[in-house]
Write a structure and sequence with these properties.
The chain has 450 residues and is an alpha/beta fold. The protein is built from 17 helices and 18 strands. A hairpin with a 6-residue loop joins strand 17 (412-417) and strand 18. The longest helix is centred in the last third of the chain and has 21 residues, at 356-376. It is globular.
């Protein structure tokens, strides 16, 4: 169906031949979108990420298109509506296969949103793609970043998901590592499992397992994956599926399918970005272990300003204070860190006083206002930590599209906006990146990839 030589021309219609769109992706947060786009660029696909759903008459030239939504933690019905709107736009671009991307730690609650969105996308594709939209996989594995799935259980490094710190996530606490159980609580569709020992037998065996599960009434199957080789096998086995769901890792095996079909050439320039001049800043909102360590490493040697949500809630001029603090460094053309990152206990204390939703919204709004102020002061290179924070910042900066460049750390590429006055951005999932990521990302955005 999706990328076979015969059906690639018939299913996509004339649009596909016009702009070369092959893979259409929907990501449930902004850093997840850049993570996926990074993987596709590494596979040689020219990739453009849009911030939200573009206008219906807007056409984007790329091999892969990634629509970044902010739908991970919103009401399930709203997440479904936004995802379907993104699907409509991607179909209008002529995309031949579709990908629903979520976090490699399967961030969700029993109410969704992974299950409801997957069901809605399959339903929407069923009329055009028939049996090819009657089944899909769910595979958030990303071995390069320590996320693996074995016998349906998700590990973060050597630790089960529910013991990794994700059990303390302020919005989507993950207290069950068995993804079959987690997903089954979110969907009326039957959930199955493609085991590691099937993957070891190669793509034909995996495709046979898909057929057997589909015949047994399974609509969504969790797929084991403990290595990049497993992801390549899965990617090959998914060539005929209308919809694939998972983390960015599964995208490792997708570009090769399009090459085998003769619709994607070899590219050496997929990661090229324009050089962006201007000042630099780091904004961090994530409370993850990785971001806490990154903030601590920065603070050991460089100036930083901590945003106090309780002070902001009291009406204190936190934004003005942060910008005044930043100006000292900017006057010396030095980068500055402004952060709301805190320990789990500190986050819980703020949530008890303000409420979970209000606390998160307040941090996002504050960092978004600071981002606008930094741009007014000449900052053109931003490193942003945290999916929700990244979403708030790019919206505040009125970013509409991003060209995806080379990888900084696994799951995190450099990006650049288009237009007369471009911005360089590194949008990082809270859990990603080495301890020295902020320094590394700034060097990369300056054009020094050491």
């Amino acid at each position: 169906m999706t990328v076979s030589t015969q059906s690639a021309g018939t299913k996509a219609g004339t649009k596909a031949g016009t702009n070369g769109a092959l893979l259409g992706c929907i990501a449930d947060d902004f850093t997840g979108a850049t993570d996926l786009a990074n993987m596709l660029v590494r596979g040689g696909m020219r990739t453009v990420q849009t911030i939200g759903v573009p206008a219906s008459n807007e056409t984007v030239q790329a091999d892969a298109l990634v629509v970044a939504l902010k739908s991970r933690t919103i009401v399930a019905a709203d997440a479904v509506a936004q995802s379907l709107a993104a699907l409509d736009w991607l179909r209008a671009q002529g995309c031949r296969q579709f990908f629903f991307k979520y976090c490699s730690t399967f961030d969700s609650t029993d109410a969704g949103n992974i299950g409801p969105v997957t069901d809605a996308l399959l339903n929407a594709l069923s009329a055009e793609f028939a049996e090819h939209a009657s089944f899909t996989i769910a595979c958030p594995a990303f071995p390069e970043n320590g996320r693996t799935i074995f016998r349906g259980h998700l590990f973060v490094g050597d630790t089960l998901l529910n013991e990794s710190g994700m059990e303390n996530h302020p919005l989507t606490p993950m207290r069950d590592a068995n993804l079959v159980r987690v997903l089954q609580r979110q969907t009326a569709s039957k959930v199955g499992l493609v085991r590691y020992d099937t993957l070891a037998q190669g793509a034909p065996a995996v495709q046979a397992a898909f057929d057997a599960l589909r015949a047994d009434g399974v609509r969504i199957a969790i797929a084991d994956a403990v290595s990049d080789a497993d992801l390549h096998t899965l990617g090959s086995a998914c060539a005929e599926l209308a919809l694939i769901t998972g983390g960015s890792g599964i995208a490792l095996g997708l570009p090769a399918n399009f090459r085998r079909a003769g619709v994607l050439g070899e590219r050496g320039d997929a990661a090229q970005l324009p050089r962006v001049e201007g000042l630099s800043a780091v904004l961090a909102g994530s409370a993850s272990k990785a971001t806490n360590a990154q903030v601590a490493a920065w603070c050991a040697t460089r100036p930083a300003f901590r945003v106090d949500p309780l002070a902001a809630a009291r009406g204190e001029p936190v934004v003005d204070q942060a910008l005044a603090f930043a100006q000292t460094s900017l006057d010396r053309a030095e980068p500055v860190l402004i952060y709301a990152t805190a320990s789990p206990d500190e986050v819980k204390a703020v949530q008890r006083e303000l409420g979970v939703d209000k606390a998160g919204q307040l941090v996002e709004a504050t960092l978004a206002s600071i981002a606008r102020g930094l741009r007014e002061r000449g900052v053109r290179k931003f490193v942003v930590a945290g999916g929700e924070t990244s979403g708030a910042v790019v919206q505040a900066l009125d970013v509409r599209t991003l060209r995806i460049g080379a990888q900084i750390d696994p799951g995190v590429p450099a990006t650049a906006t288009t237009g007369a006055e471009p911005l360089a951005l590194a949008l990082k999932s809270g859990n990603f990146g080495t301890t020295d990521f902020f320094e590394k990302a700034l060097r990369h955005l300056e054009g020094d990839a050491r």
